[in-house]
TrEMBL record:
The UniProt record lists the keyword Cell division: no
Active-site residues, record numbering mapped to chain: H315, H361, D416
Keyword flag ATP-binding: no
Annotated Gene Ontology cellular component terms: mitochondrial matrix
Lineage top rank: taxon: Eukaryota
GO term, biological process aspect, one: citrate metabolic process
Entry's family note: Belongs to the citrate synthase family.
Molecular function terms, GO-annotated: acyltransferase activity, acyl groups converted into alkyl on transfer
Signal peptide: 1-17
Keywords, comma-separated and alphabetical: Signal, Transferase
Protein known as: Citrate synthase
């Protein structure tokens, strides 16, 4: 099917009059059997803002109809377990940019990671997708052309200016402050530029909320990679700052500003940023941004809040924890640890009341495809790296042990089980910094959805809470 898409893409690109008709290719979604449209556009439609302006009324109408026709349809029953258990399995959020299937993993606007790797424009033929392409897809639901991605890259570069006070705010913190604390501080300092806040103070109409949100969102996405690089260079490279290179795409430029200029590291960063962007709406960082944004807090405020959630060890900080844990394995048992020794090490971790970082998930029930594509990258570019080989051994050793525990719902590795060893291989060895990379990438998913939150007029989020007494009384009544 994908080969057919490529042929059609080439055909439509060549015939500009036809492409103006915005031809559509129908593809069956293997996720739910529903028909999905992959829309091709004229290469000259490079203005993302205009694209959204066109799309928003369609989607507003769609939501209105959904509400008026199906508003009273039940989506499921809420159990006491769900209320006590962190709302697992409770459908309660609208999140347009991506959807997570427990077995198949993430789909960005209907496209799986392998599909994105095939259809999104790359820097080099057959290379990893450009994150700007994924951003375009998240925002519009359409696969962009290379021209559109290049235009978005250029737009982002033009927005990547950082006021001095941001650097001052960061450097007012001790250099030893956790990089995520420095990052959230930097994002909060950027907030003083918020276009949304200015427009709201001037009394902008609700129907136009999405426009300053769009400006903030794109500015923020552009700025976070610069702020993140500043923090890295400040903490680990004697404050020697590397300026942006205007000839590079988002992922490569980020890698360059961090100080890593090998073509393989550029490719890794493109892949890394692409796969960490979005993971539907219920995870801690995405949900936090959505919740805070629902109070009409601007994208900076919402994203800074999300970063504070991402900084938790059960969520984004797991990538730091994984590499530190792997390094502790090597320190104690050496790189050539046997599977038996590794099993003992895993049991020691569990018996000391800790989790095995990088394994398990709140929704996924199979190996995370974000893990799989990183494994494929490693097999291609660093098959002999000893830490990669250790990660491979863990893939064999950990799931049976977690299954044996009897309570772990998903014994398989998640995204964080793999990312550290790839970064470490190319010289980015400072594990405490890893969650910042995750945060930079997550800005794309979170900000895309925030634009749609405002475009679709989502209301203040305010679920009902109850006390244990309320639950006990409710259950007593239900039983009588
Ligand atoms: N190691 C040890 N125990 C684990 C475990 C792991 N990797 N994963 C789950 N468990 C335990 C839980 O702690 C829980 O124990 P409890 O009943 O004694 O409290 C029990 O198994 C049931 O948990 P679950 O329903 O399977 O998972 P969850 O939805 O409550 O939590 C997650 C999901 C990710 C927090 C959990 O699997 C975990 O702690 N994993 C390790 C940390 C990690 O890798 N986090 C990153 C996740 C991806 C991301 O957000 N970046």
């Amino acid at each position: 099917m994908l080969e057919h898409i490529f042929l059609l893409m080439a055909f439509f690109r060549g015939v500009s009059s036809l492409s103006k008709l915005r031809s559509r290719i129908v593809q069956q979604s293997s996720l739910n059997g529903s028909v999905r449209w992959l829309q091709m556009q004229s290469a000259s439609d490079v203005d993302l803002h205009l694209q959204l302006k066109e799309l928003i009324p369609e989607q507003q109408e769609r939501l209105k109809k959904l509400k008026s026709v199906h508003g009273k349809v039940h989506l499921g029953n809420i159990t006491v377990d769900m209320v006590i258990g962190g709302m697992r399995g409770m459908t309660g959020l609208l999140w347009e940019t991506s959807l997570l299937d427990p077995d198949e993993g993430i789909r960005f606007r209907g496209l799986s990671i392998p599909e994105c790797q095939k259809v999104l424009p790359a820097a080099t033929p057959g290379g990893e997708p450009l994150p700007e392409g994924l951003l375009w897809l998240l925002l519009t639901g359409k696969v962009p052309s290379k021209e559109q991605v290049d235009a978005l890259s250029k737009d982002l570069r033009s927005r990547a200016k950082i006021p001095d006070h941001v650097y001052k705010a960061i450097t007012s913190l001790p250099e030893t402050a956790h990089p995520m604390t420095q990052f959230a501080t930097g994002v909060m300092a950027l907030q003083v530029q918020s276009e949304f806040q200015k427009a709201y103070e001037k009394g902008i109409s609700k129907s136009r909320f999405w426009e300053p949100t769009y400006e903030d969102a794109l500015n923020l996405i552009a700025q976070v990679s610069v702020v993140a690089s500043f923090i890295y260079r400040r903490m680990y490279k004697n404050g020697e700052i590397i300026p942006a290179d205007d000839g590079l795409d988002y992922g490569a430029n980020f890698s360059h500003m961090l100080g890593f200029d090998s073509p393989k590291m550029h490719e890794l960063m493109r892949l890394y940023v692409t796969i960490h962007t979005d993971h539907e709406g219920g995870n801690v960082s995405a949900h936090t941004a959505h919740l805070v944004g629902s109070a009409l807090s601007d994208p900076y405020l919402s994203f800074a809040a999300a970063l504070n959630g991402l900084a938790g060890p059960l969520h984004g900080l797991a990538n730091q924890e994984v590499l530190l844990w792997i390094k502790s394995v090597v320190e104690q048992c050496g790189e050539n640890i046997t599977k038996e020794q590794l099993k003992d090490y895993v049991w020691t971790t569990l018996n000391s009341g800790k989790v095995v970082p990088g394994f398990g998930h709140g929704v996924l029930r199979k190996t995370d495809p974000r893990y799989t594509c990183q494994r494929e990258f490693a097999l291609k570019h660093l098959p002999d790296d000893p830490l990669f080989q250790l990660v491979s051994k863990l893939y064999e050793v950990v799931p049976p042990i977690l299954t044996e525990l009897g309570k772990v719902k998903n014994p398989w590795p998640n995204v964080d089980a793999h990312s550290g060893v790839l970064l470490n291989h190319f010289g980015l060895t400072e594990a405490r910094y890893y969650t910042v990379l995750f945060g930079v990438s997550r800005s794309m998913g979170i900000c895309s959805q925030l634009i749609w939150d405002r475009a679709l007029g989502f209301p203040l989020e305010r679920p009902k809470s109850v006390t244990m007494e309320w639950l006990e009384n409710f259950c007593k009544k239900a039983a009588s």
